Structure formats: structure tokens, C-alpha cells
Amino acid sequence: MTRSALPPRTALPAALAVALVVPLATGCGGDANAGDSGTVTVTVGYQSKTINTVTAGTLLRSLGYFEQELKARGARDGITYKVKWQDYATGAPITAQMTAGKIDIGSMGDFPLLINAARGKQLNRPTRLVSVTGYNLRGGLNTIVTEPGSRLSSLADLRGKKVSTSVGSAADGTLVRALQRADIDAEKDIHKLNQQPAVGASALQAGSADALSQFVAWPGLLAFQGRAKALYDGAELNLPTFHGVTAREEFAEKRPAVLEDFLRAQHKATEYLRERPVAAAESVAKATGLPPEVVYLYNGANGIATFDPTIKPALVAALKKDVPVLKSARLVGDVDVEAFVDDQYVKRALGARYAQALATTAAPARSEVWLRNGTTRSFAAPDQLLRHLATNTGAVRAAYVPDTTTGTLWFADKAVWVADGPRLLPFVTPSAASAYIAGHPGARTLPYANALKQAS
Question: Which CATH code is given to the segment(s) 142-237?
Fold first, then answer.
């Protein structure tokens, strides 16, 4: 993909402007005014708890790869480079800081990326999508959950209910699209609560929200803690969702080599995560306070996310399909996705490796156990994993199984199990299990404990 000219400026609605008004961070962030000698500070905005951005944030920061790249560059250039990391809960404040010239590089989900592009265009402070962190080609990074004792079992049950989400997020996009497919009007048929993820999680527990639509890692965290159960698996949409890295155009053009250093460091962090998934999960867990088992659900060897910095055509196509959803919510006007996507820097950073990586996609997820001795073991079929669990309960730290229909990984003890003859099949949601049973006479749901007994 190549860059094209910026489209004409258009005004964005007040809703977006309000969403992005946040206090500016103190200190200098961007290096637009830095000279070519002395010290240059590169400011990186990231979301530590949005764990599918870790290769451009939490994990990358802990590994120090970017600092190493800049130290080597500084030795060549005679410049001292410093990195300033700024942590945020969502993408909106990162966008606000970037368009104020305070953040040079940021990472966020696909819907916030489009708002980032629109806001940069509006303020004549353009930004560019320069790489991808984690993706799921079916949309499994977003999930709608309810409290454990809820009688809600399908999207149809959400009519007239209070549903918490973060407006303008990828999770909100999943909610809107899922409701549309169920012939439910997201504006008229439900009561949408625009809340930050942590606030929405508390609202769900307090009973002031009937359901919560959120992005990684909130659904998995709440399920792991026994505070929620899955109602809708975003992968049922079969539309890609991803997180990516955006850079200020001014910064990228002034210091392209520094941006390429960042992307090389991101690639190294991606390779580390792939080669040492357990160590990476434990590192991210330590930095964020999230349970390692939850981090591994998304970022593990068979995790819901696939990490790859290349900007795949399928992801660009998905961005284009996202624009109408944000426009209908009056959060953006027209967004020129082709102008926003700029893969020249990551291509140079990866060199000959880029083409092969671009053509590679995720392999189907396998069932997997994480043993207390720190090792993992995968299984070709869920019933094989169940047999292992039945005889090795004390040795297992966590167990994961892919949904039979969508492939979305979920905790084995939180999955909905279906017995179809001798086969034992896991599903993320009751509605998915019901849909399978409807097409397979004789199939039935059974409790997890019974599935373990049958497997053994």
C-alpha cells in the first residue's frame, strides 16, 4: 500500500470532540522542535491492559528493545535518544495527545485507529497506521458478557436491557454489528451505557448493567474471576479485528529512521512472544496486574490473538468496513483508509522478511494446558485435553479449548460443553451450543464436571 494525498479537511461532530478532550500530559512529548544534536525524546503512548498491543507497549517496554535500537543509533548519530512511555486505559487520550504533538507513536484498536485518522485530519495533524500488533481474523478479540447468574442466553434477550460498552471502541462496533444481525436497533431497542471498561465491569457486578461488551482482556478477565459468562463471541461476526501502531506524520517524516527502529524493536518483541509465550505472559501479567492465565488466553501459543506487525490486506479491508459503523454513530465523517495506511516504514524495518510475514496467517487453535511446572502441552482434540485433565488435575495451572464453531480460545472450565455421541465439544456461549444442538439430533449440553467424567 502506498500513501496518497490527504483528503480535504472536514469537521467532526461534537461527540467526537468531547470524547477526545483530555488534559495534556506535562513535559515535552514529540520531538518536532528538537534539533539534530543534543537529546531527542521519543514519546510512546500505549495501553498496558489492552494486552494485544504489548509488542508495541507493555512487553516491548519491559524488554528494552527500543531503547537498545536508539542507543545504537545515538552512537552513530552523536545524539542522545530517550524514550518516554505514557500508559492509558483507552485509545482516545492517546489520539488527543498525538494531535497535540505530545505523543509521537501510539497503539490502539481498529475503531480508535479510525478516530485517530479522522481527528488528525480535522486538526491538520495527520497520523499514519504504520504496523499491526495483534489481530484475529474472525473478530474474537471482542466479547459480550453477562453476570454469571443471568438468565440472558442470546442477543435477543438484550432487548430493553442496559448494555455497557465504550462508545467508539472495537467492542462497541462488535455490539452494534451483532445487534444489527439479530434485527435489534442499538439506539432504540437497548439502553447503551457509555463507560470505561473498568466502570462497565463494576456496573455489571453491581447489577446496574445487564451486559457488557468489551475488548481484550476484560471479557476473559471477568470470566476467569467468575464475575461474568460469555453471551456473544465476537468471532461469530467473522470480520477481522486488530490493534495497530499509529505515528504522527510530522514525526515519521522528520525521523523515519527512528520510527523504523521502533518497528524493528516491535518485530523483536513479537518474535520473543512467539518463542517464549509463557515468559511473555508472565512478564505482561507482572507489569499490568492481570492474571497470567488471562494474558495467556489471548497472547499464548494458541491464543485468541495472532501477533504480526505486517499490515495485511484483510485488515485494511476490515477498516474500510468499520468506517460506516463509526459514521452512523456520528463519531467520524469520511475516512480515507488508503491515505491513513502507510506501510513503507515497517517494510524497511523488516526488510526481506516482510513479504513472507505478510502472506502468513494464524494456524487453527489447538486445545492446550499450562502446567504448574511452567511447561505447556497442546492436544489435537478437546476430549484429549479433558482426559488429561481428569487424571492430572493438580498439575494443571490453566486449560484452554477452541470454540467448535469459531475457533475462539476459552477457558475449559468456563466453556459450554456438548456431548454428541462419543464426542465432547466446547463452545464459548450457550447460544452457539444451542445452535449446534439444533442441527445435531441427540446432542446435548452437560456440565464441565460431567464432561471430565465422560472423557475419562
Answer: 3.40.190.10
Residue ranges, comma separated, of all CATH 3.40.190.10 domains in the chain are 14-137+241-359, 142-237
What is the C-alpha R_g of the chain?
Answer: 22
Cβ count within 10 A of residue 373: 8
Q: pLDDT of the chain along its 456 residues, tens only?
A: 444 333 333 333 433 343 333 333 333 455 544 455 589 999 999 999 999 999 999 999 999 999 999 999 999 999 999 999 999 988 999 999 999 999 999 999 999 999 999 999 999 999 999 999 999 999 999 999 999 999 999 999 999 999 999 999 999 999 999 999 999 999 899 999 999 999 999 999 999 999 999 999 999 999 999 999 999 999 999 999 999 999 999 999 999 999 999 999 999 999 999 999 999 999 999 999 999 999 999 999 999 999 999 999 999 999 999 999 999 989 999 999 999 999 999 999 999 999 999 999 888 899 999 999 999 999 999 999 999 999 987 899 999 999 999 999 999 999 999 999 999 999 999 999 999 999 999 999 999 999 999 998
pTM of the prediction? 0.91
Length of the chain: 456
Cell of 25: 500530559
| Residues 6 or more apart in contact with residue 346 via CB below 8 angstroms | 130, 131, 263, 309, 310, 311, 354
SS3 288: helix
65: which residues sit within 8 A by CB, 6+ positions away?
265, 266, 268, 269
Q: Any idea which residue has 479510525 for its cell?
A: 114
Indicate the class that CATH gives domain 14-137+241-359: alpha beta
